[in-house]
Amino acid sequence: MNLVLVGINHRTAPVEVRERMNIQESRLPGAVANLVQRPGIREGLILSTCNRVEVAASVEDDVEAEPLLRRFLLDYHRCDLAPWEPYFYWRRQEDVVRHLFRVASSLDSMILGEPQILGQVKRAIAAAREVGALSGVLNEVMNQALSVARRVRRETALGSAAVSVSYAAVELGKKIFGSLNGKTVFVIGAGKMSELSAKHLLQAGARAIFVSNRTYDRALEMAAAFQGTAIHFEQIFDTMDQADIIISSTGAPHFIVRKDQAERLLQARKNRPIFFVDIAVPRDIDPAVNELDNAFVYDIDDLEQVVDANKKQREREAVWAEEIVNQEVQRMARRLASRDVAPTIVALEERLSRIRQNELDRFRGRLSTLTTEQREAVEALTRGMLNKILHGPISELKSAAGRPEHRALVELIRKIFGVD
Q1: Cα torsion for 340, 343, 348, 353, to the nearest 10°?
Q2: Considering only CA atoms, which of 281, 279, 299, 280 is closest in space to residue 289?
Q3: C-alpha–C-alpha distance, residues 60 and 3, integer Å
Q4: What is the pLDDT, as a whole number, of residue 298?
Q5: Cβ(8)–Cβ(89) under 8 Å?
């Protein structure tokens, strides 16, 4: 195994450096094909997102890998790499495996536990396989990286808690209504935060959306994006009673929804609950609305408290996720080390089998007087002795696979038994 990885990410490099090193997704197949065509490189993978650019490779055992990857980056980007060197990080051998497992599991992401990275890793793998760049050790590592990511999702709650204000609205909405399926959303003020909140609510099952904005054209634009209905700002209370969830984010210096107005909305809804998501500063929803039965008001501070609590929860879950990664790295190391010792086991068996056969041939004249049954007994006897002699060293080789001493043990056994 000779694995190496070079990369930059959001922790090591500012955005202007990441932009310079970025490789567009549509160009990944061509780039990775270029990588593996270079002498000494067996396999390659390139992961390029807005937050990271990483090049991983499996190279020939006797080849120094770092100059090959530096040359690839230099040729591909056609620039002097010297100014960017301080931003690069390098991983080698088992550390490559650990790094790729952590990346796929979203333990190395800007937002701990975010789900997008797994899709990006899958697309990077698909691009490499499209050009035949994954077929050996690195391919095994990437297959296992996907498996590890799935295990982390299955056995931890790393990605289950909202860590953005816009998604916190979904989490709170589910607590109020139980399910968001079939709920109606009314957006007041068509800003980016409102748009993100509405998007998450619709993805979680809400079925319809109204959009109102002081600039009616903007309301039309956002409503069209969600296949919703635009409402003139002056007419918001004509349809607001149809909404289960009201998201408000305007720049108004006064309350958009007062307590008395919310009371009339509840009456029109026959006291069915209303969930107000107030992400405006100054606030759009009168805090006194929270005093009404079946009215639930959460402002930006409330949402950020949910986010902060969830971030702490993700950090706790990350401890177990890291333990899962450690277990899987050790398992992968043993598997790859087993591949390393397999040639020695085969060579050892062949070496002793040849010795056995040569000795039988040497004594064949003396054994010519034996009956067929006796010759078969000699064959079984010598084969049994051979198997017993092989059992000890082969067992030791297999059990040492993945441990620090396995390389020294391989060399020792080869030397003792005269295996080339």
Answers
A1: 160
A2: 299
A3: 9
A4: 92
A5: yes
State the CB neighbour count (10 A cutoff) for residue 82: 8
352 pLDDT more than 80? yes
Q: What is the pLDDT of residues 51-85, one digit of tens each?
A: 899 999 999 877 888 989 999 999 988 888 888 88
Q: Where are the beta strands (DSSP E) in 10-165?
A: 41-48, 52-59, 89-92
Give pLDDT tens digits for 142-178.
999 999 999 998 998 887 765 677 778 888 888 899 9
Other CB atoms within 10 Å distance of the CB of residue 252: 14
- Residue 62, strand partner residues: none
Residue 187's pLDDT is 94
Cβ-contact 244, 198 below 8 angstroms: no
Homologous superfamily of domain range 3-160: Glutamyl-tRNA reductase, N-terminal domain (3.30.460.30)
CATH class of 165-305: alpha beta
Residues tagged active-site:
50
Q: Where in the chain is the domain with CATH 3.40.50.720?
A: 165-305
Q: Give the angle 286-304-292 at the CA atoms, nearest 5°.
A: 30
Among 401, 385, 400, smallest CA distance to 352 is for 385
